[in-house]
Amino acid sequence: MAHMALHIGTCGFSYRDWVGPFYPPGIKSLDMLPFYAERFGCVEIDSTYYAIPKPQLFESMDRRTPKNFRFTVKAPGSITHLPTETAPEAADAAAFRACLEPIHSAGKLGAVLAQFPHSFRPGPDAYSRLTWLRAQWPDMNLIAEFRHRDWQADETLATLRELDVGWCNVDEPRFSSLMRPGSEVTAGVGYIRFHGRNYGKWWKQERAAHERYDYLYSTQELTEWLPRIAAVDEQAREAYVFFNNHHLGKSAANARQLAEMLHARER
């Protein structure tokens, strides 16, 4: 299992509650990314879901990271979280593409993640949304993360392969309507996200979302994923594994733990 193109990191990095568990006390906000980049080779930027930033944000991130560092970036909610039958604004897609240009031209943009809500179900309108997204960003790697299990079907995988859109494998609570863990790859980039298994807090409202991601994976739970990670790594040109259980730096702890486990298996 060759890990030259397997990247491991966390969903987000600029959390104040990481000061102490991960960042040293007194660290400045602008110093967080360089500190992080000394320990991980990639990060998923999720703040873009809430608002489309100016290109200057990614210009700054480019300057503060090594040449071989990789970013993946979440698509805006104004595009992914509209009612299925409502067409997104092309202007939003264009503005999002423009803000990514600094890291795209620097060769640091690994992929764009389009995360859809649980209410987004398979059907003609949903497939049209995917086709539209692919057309908006034809020169970028695009990953689709679905929340409802109805998407786990051969038709979905065939459509994504046809569109050259990657599949996001997830670990999350095993509720009947949520996604099962897997190792699917439908494009050149493979993708895995660990959301934690906080059953009791999963369906809480967004304002309590930090509680949803208050979870620390055990060694056994990560071990269960090693064959799936190997399968994704083998199928993809490059692959990303991100931990989203960010409360109090637990994602960083699990990302380092997984990297160590994979390294130990290679020895």
How many whole angstroms does the radius of gyration measure?
A: 18 Å
Number of helices: 10
Give the spatial strand order of the biggest sheet.
Answer: 1-2-3-4-5-6-7-8
Mean pLDDT: 94
What class, by secondary structure content? Answer: alpha/beta
Strand-and-helix sequence, N→C?
EHEHEHHHEHEHEEHHEH
Low-pLDDT sequence parts: none
Alpha-carbon distance between the termini? Answer: 11 Å
Main sheet, how many strands, which sense, barrel?
Answer: 8 strands, parallel, barrel
Give the total of beta strands.
8
Query: Per the principal axes of the C-alpha atoms, what is the gross shape?
Result: globular
Indicate the proportion of strand residues.
15-25%
Task: Give the SSE map.
Elements: E1 6-11, H1 29-37, E2 42-45, H2 55-63, E3 70-74, H3 77-80, H4 90-99, H5 101-105, E4 109-115, H6 124-136, E5 142-145, H7 154-163, E6 166-171, E7 189-194, H8 209-212, H9 219-235, E8 238-243, H10 250-266
Parallel strand pairs: 1-2, 1-8, 2-3, 3-4, 4-5, 5-6, 6-7, 7-8
Helix pairs in contact: 9-10
Describe the structure.
This protein is of the alpha/beta class. The protein has helices at residues 29-37, 55-63, 77-80, 90-99, 101-105, 124-136, 154-163, 209-212, 219-235, 250-266; strands spanning 6-11, 42-45, 70-74, 109-115, 142-145, 166-171, 189-194, 238-243. The protein starts with 5 loop residues before the first strand and ends with a helix. The mean pLDDT is 94.
